Amino acid sequence: MRRVEGVQREQTVTPADLVIELAEVNGYAVLVLWGSLTVDSATQARAALHKLVLDRAQVLVDVSGLRSAWPPVLALFPSILSASGGWPVARMVLVGADERLRWALGAATVSTAVPVAESSDEAAMLIQRRPALVRRHRAIAPSLKASQVARAMGREVCRDWEIENLALPVTAIAAELVSNAVEHTGGACTLGYMLDRLGMHIAVRDHRPATGAEVSAIRSPAQWGHGLSLVKSLARGWGVTRDHDGKTVWGVVLVS
Given 3.30.750.24, 3.40.50.2000, 1.10.10.10, 3.20.20.70, which CATH number is that of 8-126? Predict the structure, then answer.
């Protein structure tokens, strides 16, 4: 197994088909994954990596020893970053991926959110740069202050991602989408922000499935009053997506 240089092992956890080692290299916390990353072993990897990101904030993941990885489980890397607060609070770089794994990471669009480095020196450089795609999400409780929470989070991500010039439309869209979700479902929702080369994406997901008629109504801002009309005027694009246990209403603001 080709290991990233300078790794000093501290602890070993061994699932059935994956060895997980916690280590240190050049002052950075390192999670070493060796073996097969499967649905079962990904559970242990996720738990170990999530804890390490929360404890240390900046983490390198040595994947040079991964013999195989089922493509769908590769999403655990960006999902952990998002759940841990996202850039710049939580940072991660994958190190030592072979050609096959690099291809899989690219095909799954993981490498746009979690940089991939060939060496620990390159990783130390990449971990200081904002990735091409950054995410952050938060559960919003149903309350009279839900829209205020959405606005505060919007200002926070615009500051952290250095797009303060978009704070006004981003916070306004987030507040309206959250307010509508709370008002029309009476339950909690999840507010998510994502920044990529296309722009700033604001999405609010609730757990009340929508009928076709409701989706059509949402797509017609006039039927929902001033709130969604404001969203339509501020967003470059917006819409609603439904699934078996809820729906997501979203808007996109272009980055100038």
Answer: 3.30.750.24
